[in-house]
Input
Amino acid sequence: MSEIIEVKAGIEAENEKFAAEVRKLLRQHHVRLINLMASPGAGKTSLLEQTIDGLKGAYRVAVLEADVDADVDAKRIEARGAKAVQIHTGGSCHMDASMTLQALRTLDLDEYDLIFLENVGNLVCPAEFDTGADLKVMILSIPEGDDKPLKYPLMFQVTDCILVNKIDTDEIFDFDLQKLQKNVAALNDHAQIIPISAFTGSGVENWLYYLRECIRSTAAGF
Amino acid sequence: MSEIIEVKAGIEAENEKFAAEVRKLLRQHHVRLINLMASPGAGKTSLLEQTIDGLKGAYRVAVLEADVDADVDAKRIEARGAKAVQIHTGGSCHMDASMTLQALRTLDLDEYDLIFLENVGNLVCPAEFDTGADLKVMILSIPEGDDKPLKYPLMFQVTDCILVNKIDTDEIFDFDLQKLQKNVAALNDHAQIIPISAFTGSGVENWLYYLRECIRSTAAGF
Output
């Protein structure tokens, strides 16, 4: 049974102080933290299921599952054989660094190499808060449309990697990958765009390759 | 060319005061306001395009388009022949009553019967704020999944109507309408659930029927 912890938002002006504490804690225990952000239903948990499978034997993985309520996602992660901590955000629409710190402190960090923070499903608020993570990854799913960078610019600006999920439904939806690339390029000159299907597994190997490279390469700032 | 107005959030504790002002203004001018909420990419603007077409000749419609940035949605609405006001929320993840009031005051309200507020794409924050609207409608799209009421309970609690959009993609996604109904019933005993496809137009007539009934019937509290 996954643990459920209730966290409280920190004072916004002090977020950077808490983010620095998160980074210090991660370095002390030689563990990496990845902040995974997306709209509701874009496929965050499905991606994590595939990622846990793909990294099995190479890295010890835990997942912090942030939700306003419920524990369905944590159960899915534990069914995959990874440690999950279900975080209830007390109504908050995002995770901040203080909340992340509270969640990390419930884990024996020496037991893990890689921790994913599955943020609250939301393209607005999570983009505004540094959680202290080493890498910011977002998912945009095909049914959401290629115009989303125009409407949620901060999220597309701050992310290091954009996973374009549900590409198995590409023929049904009017989604133009080149248009997305153009919309992203206007905001962000370094983000990797990787098309995947967390449902069929297509492209997931490219994501895992990117992730392993980030972990290996200090030049990537990871 | 659609107007762009920049609005500022009101003081949260005073939201009810502003909501009362919105209601008073709407009653003075015999106009109805509908707060339309959903995740990014669920199909809010596509629904409004269909709705404007369906109500043509019966009601004079205007749309308040709330976005963190961009004016793509307002342009789509104006191309359909309805008045659009593009609201920039100054980074805010939702519309509050004060912001709604600022937007309504840019319109000559005697020119309209029905005004839609297309809220910021977000299942968390918009649910927390009474905008003074007469009716709250949300869209959940099939690709998002039937478990969303478990994870975003407040939105499903406060809404009067749930439009289940993109039903033309029902066979591709693992979405169980009965499971959704069960998840909703645990939170909300009055919300209408109406399956539609804003893309094919399927079910839109049921939505328009519901809307016309709400407008006609004072018993529905509208």
